[in-house]
Amino acid sequence: MEEVRSPHVGSPVLSRHPSDDTIPSALRAGSPVVERTSSDEERRPPFKRHSTSGSSRISQLFPSLPDSVVVPTSEGPSSRRTSYHYPSAPPPEPLYQIPPAPAPPNFHEDTSYTSVPINFDGHHHSQAATPQRSATRRLLDQLGSRRSARSRGVNYNRLDDEESGMGRGRLKHVDEMDEIIGYDLSGFDGTPLRGLGTGDAGSSQRERDIDEAGFAAEYHRLEAQLGAGMTSILEVPFTQREGTQSQSCVPVAAQIRAEQTNTVVAVPEVVMDNNEPSGLDLESLEGRGLTRGLDQIQPSSTKSYYFPPDPDMPAWRPFSMGAPWLSVLVSIALVLAGLQEFLCQLSLRRVNADPQGGLVKFKKPQELTVLEYFTWKYAPVLFFVIYGIMWQMTDYEVKRLEAFYQLSKKTGATAAESLNMDYTTFLSWLVPLRALRHKHYAVVYASISTLVASGLVPILQSASVSVFPDKEERKENEWKSIRIEPAWSRAVTVCLVLVAVLGCVLIYEMRRKSGLLSDPKGIAGVAAMATRSHILTDFQGLDTASLDDIHKQLRHRRYILHRSSLWQGEYISNSHDKIEEHSTDPRPLMLRLRAGVAYITFIILFIITIPLLIFVEGATKVTETLPFFLTTLAIAIKLLWGTLNSDVRMLEPFLILSRRHAPPETLTLDYTGTNPLFLPIKAFLNKHYLVALVGIGAILTEVLTVCVSSFSVDGRRFLPGRGHNSSDSPDNVDETFKSFWISFGLVMGILSILVSIAVLVYTKRSHKFMPRQVGTMASILAFIYQSKMLITFVDTERFNSTRMTRHLEQQGKTYGLGWLRGRDGNTVCGIDEEELLANYVYKKNFGDAIIQPNQVGAWENW
Known about the structure:
The structure is a single chain. The protein is α+β, with helices and mostly antiparallel strands. The chain has five domains: 1-223, no CATH class; 232-293, no CATH class; 310-516; 587-769, no CATH class; 789-861, no CATH class. The chain is 39% helix and 7% strand. The protein contains 22 helices and 15 strands. The protein has helices at 40-43, 55-61, 135-152, 201-223, 250-261, 323-353, 370-377, 379-407, 431-437, 441-464, 486-509, 522-528, 547-554, 593-615, 620-625, 629-658, 679-685, 689-708, 737-765, 777-784, 801-811, 858-861; strands at 234-235, 238-239, 265-267, 279-280, 288-289, 304-306, 360-362, 413-414, 465-468, 480-484, 557-562, 565-571, 815-821, 827-833, 838-839. A hairpin with a 5-residue loop joins strand 13 (815-821) and strand 14 (827-833). Helix 8 packs across helix 18, helix 17 packs antiparallel against helix 18 and helix 18 (689-708) runs antiparallel to helix 19 (737-765). The longest helix has 31 residues, at 323-353. It is elongated. It holds the Pfam family DUF3433. The chain crosses the membrane at residues 373-391, 442-468, 488-508, 596-614, 626-644, 689-711, 740-762. InterPro entries: DUF3433. Residues 1-108, 142-167 are annotated as: Disordered.
């Protein structure tokens, strides 16, 4: 059944007799003939046709509009009504044609109303009323007929004509309704129509113009809000003057102008002859406002933008970056350093007083209480591991938000220092070197403190505690004592003092303002900041570009975070930024299959090494000489697992989007800043079970470090058949039978679990489902620069994550990562609301099989 467009509200079209227009006007009840000179449509000025993107584009942009909307059609002299289908396609041919109406009957000359009904017959005329009836009587009959018609509510409802408001009555003995023609006010399918006044070709064209003009106006109104912040920019042109400042002084002068006028100042880049000095005219405070739309600014624009200081710049930061939390970390470091030195001094004094003494004396480990034994074997390393986790919470946030701190500076930052910077997926022990190169000192302080507190301090502390005498000299029923080795202990103290100093400097660094009102979580947090300026024009054509290509295109400009929005800053004509070579592999390093095989092999070798060093005769000399050897290997496993954990957490929302039809909360999903202890619970509640397993593995690596630190014994003494003589009695060692096997079982079990989780991770996450790595803001902006969903984020830059999630859920849309039709009509790869054109397949360009709207000579080449 053909689709029939619904009429406007308030003007329902009643079903009409197909032969209405063939009945003389005088016989229409209550409708005398009214001459009409011209229709409303003929008096309406013509509309100019606007180019739109078609029905699919409108339906995606304006989901609130019905599928079919009818506009008033033109009226010819016969005042007929016509219904057109959507203007993107010509009216379809109906399935059948309504047969023409029969010829009208012959009527008597006198067509005025009389009290005696006229009998219409196709073969003879009915006798007329008596001629003696008075004119007054006939007039009263006509008035009565009109009154009765109005009382019955009969109305043809002709749109915009003079007869539509006049009452009409049905002629007696005349069947005016031959057939009922269906219609649907809600825009659903109705009965096909043909012949109900199609109108001329010119009228149809005007109706299509009106329809498309309405849709185009609504689309341009919404799209014009993108980059709306550019309307308040003051554009200051260069003027040639003698004796003015050189071109190098322009940024300073423009910044002064911006501060004086409290307005964003735009200065075009002009290539000048060195022999012709020129400058920026700062005498006049008047400029030209920039009101151009987003599509009118070219990506190669060389204008520089200078911003006035924001007196109310927000300074949001997470709790783990605040002064109270950092003060607690500094205090703990100082307390632990003092405690370590106190124990060292106490041990030395007791050794001086008693050559066989130490912190604790015992003959058999069983003589110690559970608290004493736990404090000796596990508590020191456990405390330092927990302290390292506390620093990791701060380290994650500092690395994640440093780019925003750089953008919030007075003149902004280059793309290499902000938009293209990624610390979260980088190897943790190399982060300080990269941060030092870019002068991101807050990252340097936080990352060094975390590495020292969570990695180096536990290793040194495990080596600082020893049992006197040595294994070769220990005898049954002789005193044994726990001592602190001064050299290793002083190294622990120095490291803790270093952490405290770095923490104090970090507190000073955190006085900076971030320019953020709330946590910029996920893809939505970045998209909301990119709707007020023209920053997205710099990402033209970068939807599938590599990280190196993105850096090449963005290195000629500085960027700034101003009033919670990202803006273009100063144009850099001669950029000296060195382009770092990045791998074209879209997977982070630790999620590549080669790295995975090497990492799993390393864990398996560690599983094999532990029994060899404990139970093989002669191999125990390694642990005796290097008591921190096993602890060092466990720390290496922990650090590598931390990098793997960060990669999995960062990729999770993009993986969900690549599977298509993702819920709205996916755009605000962000695990990178989640507390490591709470991560498994949060991921499990979100049904992201692999992320939860990896988070559990991260906690297990901390337990592994604690358990491995106690392995400095000869395990042969605890095997069956050993320990029957006094020289090999289990009492001669610093482990009990139960504690040894519990620790050994925990270590082997944890390592086996880590291998299983790692195999599962590389099975599920080692495939390539994106064109590049996505750890940077620039990579996200390159995915959304042509997305229609950007309209959803207009005026949301001040929303927090909870309000943003609620806002997206109210839209009732789903989202995906794949090939889409951009706002310019071209096919690009990105993140947008559904429906997308196709899924993304690595290194397969879906756009190559489609003729692009701006492709020159497309049909000829095709």
